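Supplementary notes for students who missed Thursday's class. We covered one full example, reproduced here. Read the sequence, then the structure, then the short commentary at the end.
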Amino acid sequence: MSDTGSTGEMSQAKKPRASRPKVKTGCVTCKARRVKCDEAKPHCLRCSNFGRICGGYPSNEDNPRPKAPSLQVPRRLLSKAMQGSPSPSRTPSPAPRPAPTVRQLGLPVGVVFQDEREHQYFLHFRDETAIEISTGFDPSLWNVLVLKACDIPAIRQLVVATAALSLAMTKSELGARDIDTSAHHQYALQKYGEALKGIREMVANGQDSIRIALISALLIFCFETLHGDLDRAIDHVRSAVEMIVKEISSTPQSFYFTRTNTLGARGSSAIDDELLTAFMRLDRPSLTCLSKNETRMPEPNRIFSSLFSQEHLEIPGGFETTTEARAYLEDIKWRIMPSGQPPESIKDLWNMESNDSPNLDLVTLPAQLRAWYKSFGVENSKNTSLELAHWHDAFSSILNYSMTPAGDSLFVAAVMLHIQALSTDLLANGFASSNSAPVGSSAGDLHSFPTVHAILSLSRRLVAHPKFLRAFVFDVGIVPSLVNICMLCPDQELKLEAIDVLKSMVPRREGWWDSRVAVEAGERWLQQGDEQVDFEMVG
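Structure (token representation):
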């Protein structure tokens, strides 16, 4: 399973020093460096912590020689022609891959690259970008399903463009040379333009399918969000959601899938389960709030309502993986999200006086959302509170294990889920009903708003973890939970602390939730005073 941890070095305690045994079963990189490997999967933590590329683990059939000098200096996959170009610094490629003795995901059948540079960016997406944007969860949507579609040139170009732009943004934040960042950025734009042209040609020739359209929409969403064009990213997501709703509305039963098992494509369905799940996670109230210039606002939560409104998942006694725990938590969250046509007042969130760049009215956003959730009947839900209590019980063993050295590889995903569950509990019970403390109570008193204290404490610990990325990730993590505190917690000191945590994770983006924008909004809400409220946004 992808969620399992590794005990690594603990099984080798106090053995006498000998030639080679300590690194005999380690990753390729650690063996080449002749250092002890912790054998964490899929990449060892020793390499990750020291900024090296983990070479992975040889298969059982491999019989490497005692000495492997070719591994000490990783081989570049660039062609000699590219290596000898007059200005190599103007055409940087991703980090070189290790020698081909490593057991990795193979290249999808039928994928042909224009040149070695495109190949390098493709490998970077498969081995780095796909892992990063998966937020600590199973990345198979990105490094399996999406990559299998790369036999279509437009999809391959979108993948390559996203990898190049991700590299450009990362290097920019790290203060890399402008020339390197610019080259990655220019290559990303070039490939993105080629991809869009290819998609238009496919549509014109009737060669597109709903599956390819949805994969394209996901990649375009990632690219445009990375590039800072949120409006265009939102437009593509909305179009994709409308496409799915239209497809499944007539026979939703044919698109049903078992959410608690490993997801994947079914021969009987035109849309892969993983694609449906990805767009269910985007089909949220926040998508409605971010839509503008609409005579009729889009309804949220339609995919879930069409497929699973009649299926209530029974929480087991314990979860085996974070993926399973996530499915059950999302079932609870989606059931308490508003559905149906939003109130007309939601359209008032946008200031349309400036046609060029209408602005979201952040000042009135909390009140508008409170009214929406209240009209949907989300208030003091005892059933939801009971379900969340059962979920926490079932999740406790995974959470406790993730807090140990052996379970460190699960830490980011496990703590993120725990924070989301606590935030959902605030929705069910409200800030005021979670305790009897008056407005303005001291934030130092843990009896005042204990759930908020827990969210903030765990968030600080999560952000400090070396595996927590201050970059773009596809799914929602903890930014909305902290935004909820900034908007709606009656305690000013706790609002300040939430803003401080958000500042510490800049420039992280979780889908369309930008930590920088959240900080600016939080500071504006802080100036409004401490109006006590009973609802919060889970979007």
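Commentary. The mean pLDDT is 77. Strands lie at 350-351, 359-360, 472-473, 509-510, 513-514. If anything here is unclear, bring it to office hours.
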